[in-house]
Amino acid sequence: MRMELTAPTTLVLLVAVVTGFWALAKILIAQVFRQLDERFAAQETARSKSQEHWELRFVHLETQSKGTEKELLLLRGDLPNLYVRREDYIRGQTVIESKLDSLHGERDSYVRREDHIRSETVVHAKLDALAKTLIMGKQNDQSTTKHP
Asked: What is the distance between the alpha carbons of residues 108 and 115, in angstroms, rounded to a whole number?
């Protein structure tokens, strides 16, 4: 059995081969598009989940930010009542130190006055003792001169 290829047979074979390749290409392209559609659908699902996650995260951060802002405002309101600024502390310390210095100066003048009063008292006591001895000595002289 021998087959001869004639022009119509060749043409039919050629059309059959081209149609086969065309069907195969169409099936392959359809599979590629289906896989691409699946990938795009998976990416869209992942993107929407990610977007929901970030929206929830941003809402949480906004809530947290508002809470922190309220706390900061309360802290700023309480700050002058709880803390002393450096300049105010220095000013207060300067006033206290100047008062201590003036008290020290007053104490020194009081001590000097006391020392002066003591020294005068000692001098007066010595003068009184000297006067007493002189008076006693005169009285003894007078009493001895009267009885001879």
From this structure: 10
Note the pLDDT of residue 147: 53
> Residue 132 burial (CB < 10 Å; 0-12/13-18/19+)?
exposed
**Chain centre to alpha carbon of residue 128:** 75
- Is pLDDT at 1 greater than 70 in this prediction? no
Least confident residue range of 16-30, 37-51, 130-144: 130-144
Please tell me the distance from the alpha carbon of residue 56 to that of residue 97, in angstroms, as a whole number: 59
Is the pTM higher than 0.70? The answer reads no
Name residue 29's amino acid.
I
Using a 10 angstrom Cβ sphere, with 0-12 exposed, 13-18 middle and 19 or more buried, the burial of residue 100 is: exposed
What percentage of the chain carries pLDDT values higher than 70?
Answer: 93
Residue type, 46: A
Pick the closest to residue 90 from 98, 82, 78, 81 (CA basis). Answer: 98
> What pLDDT was estimated at residue 145?
64
What ranges make up the beta strands (E) of the chain? none
Q: What is the DSSP string of 17-47?
A: HHHHHHHHHHHHHHHHHHHHHHHHHHHHHHH
